[in-house]
Amino acid sequence: MNTITSTELGELPSVWKVQRFDSLFDVQQGKQVSKQNRAGDNQHPFLRTKNVFWGRLDLTDLDKMHFTHTDETRLALKPGDLLVCEGGDIGRTAIWRGELARCYYQNHLHRARLRDGTEVDPQFVLYWLWYAFEVGSVYFGRGNVTTIPNLSQSRLSELPMPLPSLSEQRKIAGMLGLLQRAIEYQGRLLQLTAELKKALLHKLFSEGLRGEPQKQTEIGPVPESWKVSTLAEAALAFDYGTSVKCEHGKAGFPVLRIPNVVGGSIDLTDLKHGQPKQTESDALLLRDGDLLFVRTNGVLENAGRCALYRGELEDCYFASYLIRVRVDCSKVLPEFVNEYARTERGLSFLSGRAIRTADGKFNINSGTLKRVLLPLPSLDEQKEIIRQLDIAERKLNLHKAKHCALTDLFRTLLCQLMTAQIRVHDIDVPTEAPSF
Question: Hey, what CATH class is 19-163 in?
Answer without folding.
Answer: alpha beta
